[in-house]
TrEMBL record:
GO cellular component: nucleus
Keyword list, A-Z: Isomerase, mRNA processing
PANTHER family registered for this protein in UniProt: PSEUDOURIDYLATE SYNTHASE PUS7L, TRNA PSEUDOURIDINE SYNTHASE D
Native species: Pyxicephalus adspersus (African bullfrog)
The TRUD domain, residue ranges: 316-535
Catalytic activity: a uridine in mRNA = a pseudouridine in mRNA
InterPro entries tied to this protein: PsdUridine_synth_cat_dom_sf, PsdUridine_synth_TruD, PsdUridine_synth_TruD_insert, PUS7L_N, R3H_PUS7L, TruD_catalytic
Gene3D superfamilies named in the record: TruD, catalytic domain
CDD domains xref list: PseudoU_synth_ScPUS7
A GO biological process held by the record: mRNA processing
Protein name: Pseudouridylate synthase PUS7L
Family: Belongs to the pseudouridine synthase TruD family.
Physiological role: Pseudouridine synthase that catalyzes pseudouridylation of mRNAs.
């Protein structure tokens, strides 16, 4: 193609950054940039030492924020290039470090490494593919130390796979900043721009919203941080922080987002990222329509609702992971994908990922075509644009083929948060089943071998205490203090029948020797602890008539007025601790018989 887009495909460009360059650069400059990148790539492949190509000007950009965005977009889209500034002029030249590293590893890994290096995500790591040659690994260690020793450090990790083969991989991480580094440290801190905002979304998954935001802003999905994933089938609000985007730039895209069911509020500067589990809890406002008792009518409805609400206030609810944790598919369950990944059955994991539902919408037509034909390119042409992770996977499978390497590359093509979602789904399934077994076996009494936190600080994952026989006899602990582990490599299991159940369940799934690390996919699953029982806070309700709600009325109705309504509805408001599910709390209320 004469516009150079064919070359872009061969470089496996990040779609979001490419879209951003389309907005920031003229067509002529884009074409020149594409051609320059392809020329550099050809020179590198011909092993032209030092590459005698000079530099290319992208034009003058007086605005500092614009320059920063283009710097990042070019480096992320073309890791084969480096950018630099002369006054207000932006220029690019060959990345000779990329050329050197690609000769030690591969073009693909070199590109991913420089993308990681440029993103500078705090506490993130990059792992090269396993390498059996110690001499070769030493060369990679020396290269990174020599070129980027002040910024990053390397370490080798040895791991035996399920097949019994010992594999050694090199992991790179950023060095911690020291207070004695003076001016250099302050300069680095100033270059890290963080913007906080509140994300409002409707009928959209959190990860889909992030993928769209990253495309519009020209940053990586990993540049966004958040404290948890919200429901799709709801209007949700959640705090987020994005790196390398100024508040002004964030506010400029507001109108673009609304057509996708996204709004942003309270945009403001921030000092750092937020992390999963960092929030203290969630507030919920729910409307239940056409409310009836278990006999299907409205007899004793007001009193019955009052009793159901009181029951969950006083007794709490079993703290199951809700259905959102497992995805919505009937045929493809996220936990099955997660199990295949833990067992490193890559071909099966991809097959399960693309298992279609029994319907003929465009998404399932594309899945069915791939499921039956294995034609990634054809399926990619059929897959709708909004299915971000499916398209990423298909693009990688088309490039690397239907092989073990291709499957691994496919999973690595989607963001880390999306990859680990499936393993968390499986581990959550085990937790739910363990909780049911625990209650069925011991009821609501605390018994010897149960686990409780040593302190009120749930962030101290390792600080759990095993209840002794004496403590059981003296009723030292209450059931709401008991926790169960979500499987991982850094958790303790109960030393009673529940612990035996965990061992049997994992062995039955083929995970008796699982290390809960998938090195090839850069996945690490330490595990965590979760209370069996939880309680809603500030729970209130109103029983309303449909017409009154439509007219924005807020007053309570008397019992007689409610019973005269053909369509009474229940308005609920309550708060839950982080990682608790409103659907689970609601189910406990709704199953109360009256």
């Amino acid at each position: 193609m004469d516009d150079g887009s064919e070359g872009l495909s061969s470089l496996d460009c990040e779609v979001g950054f490419y879209n951003l360059l389309n907005l920031m650069l003229s067509k002529d400059v884009q074409k020149a940039l594409n051609n320059f990148a392809n020329s550099v790539k050809s020179a590198f492949e011909s092993q032209v030492k030092g590459c005698d190509l000079c530099e290319l000007s992208l034009g003058l950009f007086p605005n500092k924020d614009d320059r920063a965005v283009i710097h990042s977009a070019v480096r992320q889209t073309f890791p084969i290039l480096v950018t630099f500034t002369k006054n207000t002029e932006l220029l690019v030249k060959p990345n000779l470090d990329y050329q050197e590293l690609s000769q030690l590893t591969s073009e693909e890994e070199a590109g991913k490494f420089f993308t990681f290096l440029d993103a500078k995500v705090q506490n993130s790591t990059f792992t090269f593919h396993p390498d059996v040659s110690k001499e070769h690994r030493t060369s990679v260690h020396h290269f990174i130390s020599r070129k980027f020793g002040k910024l990053a450090e390397t370490k080798s990790f040895s791991e035996k796979g399920i097949d019994g083969v010992q594999r050694v991989s090199i992991t790179v991480r950023f060095r911690e900043k020291k207070s004695s580094s003076g001016k250099r440290q302050r300069t680095e801190e100033q270059s890290e721009i963080f913007t906080a905002f509140t994300l409002e979304k409707e009928n959209l998954e959190t990860l889909e919203a992030i993928s769209y935001l990253s495309s519009v802003l020209g940053v990586l999905p990993s540049d966004f941080s958040y404290a948890g994933i919200k429901d799709k089938k709801a209007i949700t609000y959640q705090s987020m922080v994005v790196k390398k985007v100024t508040p002004d730039r964030m506010q400029k895209i507001e109108s673009t987002l609304e057509k996708r069911g996204i709004k942003i509020h309270n945009v403001r500067p921030a000092k750092c990222h937020i992390h999963l589990g960092q929030l203290s809890g969630n507030h919920f406002k729910l409307i239940l329509r056409n409310v009836k008792n278990h006999c299907g009518d409205t007899t004793n409805l007001p009193q019955g609702i009052e009793d159901a609400v009181h029951n969950v206030k006083v007794r709490g609810f079993l703290n199951y992971y809700g259905p959102q944790r497992f995805g919505k598919g009937l045929n493809m369950q996220s936990q099955e994908v997660g199990l295949a990944l833990l067992k490193e059955e890559m071909a099966l994991s991809v097959k399960l990922f693309f298992t279609p539902e029994d319907c003929d919408d465009p998404v399932n037509k594309a899945k069915r075509y791939f499921f039956e034909s294995g034609d990634a390119k054809g399926a990619l042409a059929l897959m709708p644009d909004f299915k971000v992770r499916e398209r990423m996977m298909l693009r990688a499978l088309n490039r690397y083929g239907m092989s073990d390497e291709g499957y691994v590359r496919g999973w690595l093509s989607i963001p880390h948060s999306m990859r680990i979602f499936y393993i968390h789904a499986y581990c959550s399934k085990i937790w739910n089943e363990a909780a049911s077994y625990r209650i069925a076996t011991y009821g609501l009494r605390v018994v010897e071998g149960d686990l409780v936190f040593c302190s009120d600080n749930e962030n101290q994952k390792s600080s759990v205490h095993i209840v002794t026989a004496t403590e059981e006899a003296d009723d030292i602990y209450l059931i709401n203090q008991v926790v169960l582990p979500m499987p991982g490599h850094s958790v303790k299991y109960p030393s009673n029948q529940v612990g035996d159940w965990y061992k049997e369940a994992l062995a039955k799934a083929g995970l008796q020797f699982c290390k809960f690390r998938v090195g090839s996919l850069q996945l690490n699953i330490p595990g965590c602890y979760r209370h069996i029982l939880k309680y809603p806070r500030n729970l209130s309700y109103e029983l309303l008539e449909e017409d009154d709600f439509q007219n924005q009325g807020t007053g309570k109705w008397t019992n007689a007025e409610v019973l005269q309504s053909a369509n009474p509805l229940l308005k609920l408001s309550f708060e839950l601790d982080s990682s608790c599910y409103a659907t689970v709390c609601l189910r406990e209320m709704m199953k109360y018989y009256f």
